[in-house]
Amino acid sequence: MNHTLRPLRSACTLAAALLALAASFATHAATPAEARYVGDYRGGSVDTVTQLALLGDNTFCFAVTGGALDMLMAGRWKSEGTGVRLQQVRPEQTLFPAFARKVAALGDRVEFDFHGRSLSNARAPVFAVSADDQPPATLRPLFVADNSTWSESYQLPALPAQAVRTFYLGEVVDGAPGKAPVVKVVQYRLDGANSVRVGFDQLQAMPPMVQRAELQGDMLFLSGSRLGQRRALSREVEQAVRTGCVEPALNPNVPRPVKKGQDKPLEPLRTFTLGLEAIQGKPFFEAKGN
C-alpha cells in the first residue's frame, strides 16, 4: 500500500461526501523561481497527517486528516516576496449537505437521519418540514443548547410522506453590522426520495484559506510553521491529487457520477433568513443520540 497517498485519498472521499470543493480558475506553468516549490510535503503529529501537493501548473491540494476536522482544500499558488502564496478557490456551497435515496421498505413514510458530530459545529441548528413549497412560520431546535455529548446518528421517527414535500435546515448567524442575529435557512425538496441523511459542512462556514509558504533549504514552512521536506511528486500521487482534489475545484459544474450504493446529493431550492423569533418549540433531540 502507498502510505504517502493514503491521506489524500481519505480526504478526497470526505470532500465528495460533503461537496466542499468547487471553483473555476485558469492555470499556467510555474515560473523558474516557482519551479523549486513543486513537490509533495508532509507533516503532522501523532494524531494528524498534513499533506500539501504543489503542482507545476500552480494549483495545489492541501489535506489534513485524523484530527477533529478533516480538511481538503484546493486552489492556486504563486510567487510572492521570498516565498509563495496559497489561495483557496471555493465558491459558496450549502452549509447543510443533504443526501437522499429511495427505500422501498419505508413505503409512504419519510425518515431523517442527522449526523450529530458535524452538526455539533453549527450554531443552534434548527429543522422543519412542509407539505408544500411554502416555508414554515417556525422551526424547532435540533438539539438542547447545552448538549456536550454527540453521537454519529440522530434519527427522527418516520413521518407521513404527504406531510413532507420540502424540508428546512438552518443555523443562527450574525446579522448585518449593528443588527441582531438571524436564522439562515436552506430549503430542500425530496423529489421522490424518502430517506435523508443531513450533516453540516464546517469548512464552508470558515473563511477561504490564504497562507504563505517559504522554503528554507528543502524544508517548507507554512505561515511560519514547519510543514515538511520537499519530495518529488510521483506520477501516482500527482494523478490522485488532480482527479480527486484539483479537478473538482477547477470544473465544479461537471457532473460527478454517483457510485452504486451512494446516496444522491440534494440541491438546495433556495436560502433565506428569518428572525430569531422563528425558533420555537422544544428540541427534537433532548438526550444522547443513537
Q: Can you describe what's shown?
A:
With 290 residues, the chain is α+β, with helices and mostly antiparallel strands. The chain folds into two domains: 6-92 and 204-250, Lipocalin; 98-202 and 260-278, no CATH class. It has five helices and 19 strands. The chain has helices spanning 6-18, 32-35, 116-119, 202-205, 235-250; strands spanning 39-44, 49-54, 59-65, 71-80, 83-88, 98-101, 109-115, 126-130, 140-141, 153-155, 159-160, 166-173, 182-189, 195-198, 210-216, 219-222, 225-229, 264-265, 270-275. Helix 1 runs parallel beside helix 5 (235-250). The protein is elongated and about 65 Å long. Mean pLDDT is 84; it is low at 1-27.
Strand-helix topology:
Blueprint: H1 6-18, H2 32-35, E1 39-44, E2 49-54, E3 59-65, E4 71-80, E5 83-88, E6 98-101, E7 109-115, H3 116-119, E8 126-130, E9 140-141, E10 153-155, E11 159-160, E12 166-173, E13 182-189, E14 195-198, H4 202-205, E15 210-216, E16 219-222, E17 225-229, H5 235-250, E18 264-265, E19 270-275
Parallel strand pairs: 7-14
Antiparallel strand pairs: 1-2, 2-3, 3-4, 4-5, 5-15, 6-14, 6-18, 7-10, 7-11, 8-9, 8-12, 12-13, 13-19, 15-16, 16-17
Helix pairs in contact: 1-5
Strand content: 35-45%
Secondary structure tally: strands: 19
Question: Can you give the mean pLDDT?
Answer: 84
What would you call the structural class?
alpha+beta
Shape type: elongated
By CATH reckoning, the class of the largest domain would read: Mainly Beta
Question: Could you say what the CATH topology of the largest domain is called?
Answer: Lipocalin
Strand order of the biggest β-sheet: 1-2-3-4-5-15-16-17
Helix tally equals 5
The count of domains is 2
CATH architecture of the largest domain: Beta Barrel
Uncertain residue ranges: 1-27
CATH superfamily caption of the largest domain: YedD-like protein
Largest sheet: 8 strands, antiparallel
**Compute the gyration radius: what is it?**
21 Å
Q: Tell me the helix content.
A: 10-25%
- Separation of termini? 34 Å
Question: What is the element string, with H for helices and E for strands?
Answer: HHEEEEEEEHEEEEEEEHEEEHEE
